[in-house]
Amino acid sequence: MRSPAFDRRSELAEVIAFAFRDGSWDVASMAARAAHDLGLGDGRPFEPLAAHVCSVYPDPAESSTRSLAQLVESVLGAMAADRAATFDGELVAWLGGAHNSFAERWRDVGRKTRSAMDDSRWPVTPINDPVELAQAVDLDPTMLEWFADVRSLERTVTDENLRHYDYRWRPKRGGGARLVEAPKQNLKTVQRRILRRILDAVPAHEAAHGFRRGRSIQSFAAPHTGQDVVVRLDLRSFFTSVPAGRIFAIFTSIGYPAPVAHVLTGLTTNATPARVLAAYPGSRGLDASVAAMLRGVHLPQGAPTSPALANLAAFALDVRLAALAERFDATYTRYADDLAVSGSGDFARAVDRFIAIAATVVSDEGFSIAPDKTRVQRSHRRQVLTGLTVNRHLNVARRDVDRLRALLHDAVHNGPDAANRNGIVQFQSHLEGRIGHVQATNPARARRLWLLFDQIDWSVSR
After folding, report:
1. Is the pTM of this model over 0.70?
2. 3-class DSSP assignment, residue 314
């Protein structure tokens, strides 16, 4: 039976291994990332450990996260034996830190970043080779290879019938357009099986509230009510910025062998055809960096597996931003590409410094912040997250409720077709969903909206 000291050592080793692998492979950078992820200010105590790792693995490609964690754990074990001490808060002193609750603080992080398949913790479907993978997703091996598109034919074929995705450019509120890459039905069925049999069993970070059962925009925004300052940051091109290499790493960290992870990556990623990029409808042309990400193999926005994979790809980001927020005595949550941080006192006074450090962390994790969407919202003005005001309690912004009420009045007096000026498909369900959104935080307002909704004559709708 593993001792509690051994468990803590293993968990710490995994956190350090992830930090070491997550950027430049040089001693100073590796040590700085490890210190940052562990909430310690100075990376110098980690430099001997980083130097030892670099001597064993001069090229990071020669190691996996699992093998790296094992190496780090062996060094920590030697430290514990040499010091003849239990592996508890003493380790922090050995490394030059001073955080008394270190072991408790990082126990959950270690569990969630565990890199070995553990059926008692992650009940994923066990798969040992591509043949078993084909059986797991109910395909024969030939069709599996076709859907995985291991030769990236999607980028070059001209016959639409041979493509696995349908492409649609959708306008964005601030101008330009966003590409939706929707898998065709057969591939979508395979992706749903991967989601149900593998990804649903692997937990995202506790700070993640998007695309998770039992979580919502309400649970995302609720921790930020009644704070002196609420900061909203927006990740740019969230899905598109997750490359195939990171998806491959996710599947191997779950415990699948490389050949299986390679095929799973092919089934859940895509490279956008040049003809689709050329059809971008924006007047200013597609941003060069976004075009480069779309040309490369990436997470497609529209695939059922992409939200879960994006959450897992952002796990290290969530770990680091949650730790950073804790250092500033603040609270951090994330809903897809919306990041929220709030606090009072010290955080309110140091908010600009926090944003600068957070932007560096985001960049280091392979994402980028959209600076034009950053909002610092203080308590004397309206504080809004995902359409909910959070000043004193959760509520839908009055402006949004007024717009919805006007839309319902229009539908009552002029008919739903006339009111549906944006051509929304399933307009009735759309209105029901918007009223339900109000009802979640303000039932009294929602009752008045339902009374209007019930007066709409849907029989005249085409």
Report:
1. no
2. coil
